Amino acid sequence: MKGKILVIEDNEQNLYLIRYILEDCDYEVFSAWDGKEGIELAASLLPDLILLDIQLPIMDGYAVARKLRENRDLADTPIVAVTSYAMPGDREKAMEAGCSGYIEKPIDPDTFEVQVGKYLSMKVNKERRQ
Ligand code: MN
Predict the structure, then answer these.
(1) For 86-107, how does the pLDDT look when each residue is reduced to its tens digit (9 = 90+)?
(2) Ligand 1 center from residue 84 Cα (angstroms)
(3) Could you give the CA distance from residue 122 to residue 117 in angstroms, rounded to a whole number?
(4) Which three-class secondary structure state does DSSP give residue 104?
(5) 78 Cα to the center of ligand 1, angstroms
């Protein structure tokens, strides 16, 4: 296994596609349908990377990212916002909330794994420096 990835995503089709691509690339994929479940799962799993949908029920992705960053064990975990919201300022909002980066929907199966791999290597580099 190349690493544990937690996907917080409420859209079944998006989750299916993400899981399909990542499992095919030998990642171990875990998923949550909403922020509350995602935060709990992240705390127990301590994944190598979190993919976070921004449009989620109850708690939006920005609130989820802030909450995830309150957990010291997840302080260095790359959190990547995945959203179709291509609104100006959205990227900044995601970064302010604690996200490490941003992948735009619709997901491009040809580039998705490379994008995810880039964010995963952020954590690896950080660990090597310590
Ligand atoms: Mn959504």
Answers:
(1) 666 778 899 999 999 999 889 9
(2) 9
(3) 9
(4) strand
(5) 19
